[in-house]
Amino acid sequence: MKKLFFLLSIASVSLSACKKNSEPVPVADVRTSLLLAHDWKLAAESVTYHRDGSNTIVQEVYSSITPCAQDNLTKFNADKTIAYSEGATECYKPGEMAPVEPGSWYFSDDQTTLYINQHQLRDATQAYQVLVLTEQTLQIRHVYTYRQNNRDYTGTEDYTYTAL
Predict the structure, then answer these.
(1) Are 48 and 155 in contact (CB under 8 A)?
(2) Which is nearest to 83 in space by CA: 131, 129, 40?
(3) More confident residue, 29 or 96
(4) Which partner from 6, 18, 44, 52 sits 20 to 30 angstroms from 131, CA to CA?
(5) Which residues 6+ apart lie within 8 Å of 98 measured at CB?
(6) What b/e string do you get for 111-127 counting C-beta neighbours within 10 Å, with b at 16 or more?
């Protein structure tokens, strides 16, 4: 009888130790992991202008980027910095261009907005709505307003990156 009780005790401890962890991985951790996992290369860029709620103009921008810059890489680092590097086709010979100061980034609490500060362009953080973030694609949107010739305009910049 003692043997039977002992075997049942061991079996119950063994079964309880094999319990599956059913807690899902938080979305925040998944999105951060996806962003950090790759170098990202710009694959498409467009700008849409809206004037006073009408007269929408869409401009495809990517094709106007010089070919040597189209393969440049962006790397989001765990320390919240962004590293920019030349791709396979360099625009400048070594020493011709000053080193690019890294940018910085962070997510909103719900990770639907990516805040980017590109120090070399301007020292201002801009908000980008995260439209798609998968193992292969990062798609973000920046919306801004401005006034020109006494008219109000809204601009929407869409960027699509592919993972390398």
Answers:
(1) yes
(2) 40
(3) 29
(4) 52
(5) none
(6) beebebbbeeeeeeeee
CATH fold for the domain made of 26-163 = Lipocalin (2.40.128)
Q: DSSP for 10-39, please give it.
A: HHHHHHHHT----PPPPHHHHHHHHHHTSE
Burial environment of residue 53 by CB neighbours within 10 A (0 to 12, 13 to 18, 19 or more): exposed
What distance in Å separates the CA atoms of residue 161 and residue 78, rounded to the nearest whole number?
A: 19
Burial status of residue 42 (CB atoms within 10 A of its CB: 0-12, 13-18, 19 or more) = buried
Of residues 13 and 117, which shows the higher confidence score? Answer: 117
Indicate the domain borders of the chain. Answer: 26-163
Tell me whether strands 113-117 and 81-85 are parallel, antiparallel or unpaired: unpaired
- The confidence score (pLDDT) of residue 122 equals 60
For the chain, the straight-line distance linking the first and the last C-alpha, in angstroms and rounded, comes to 63
The whole-angstrom separation of Cα 114 and Cα 82 is: 12
pLDDT tens-digit profile of 64-103? 999 988 999 999 999 999 998 888 888 877 666 655 667 8
Phi/psi-derived region of residue 149, left when phi > 0, alpha when psi is between -120 and 50, beta in every other case: left
Q: Which position has the token pair 């951790």? A: 29
- Cross-strand pairs, 105: 116
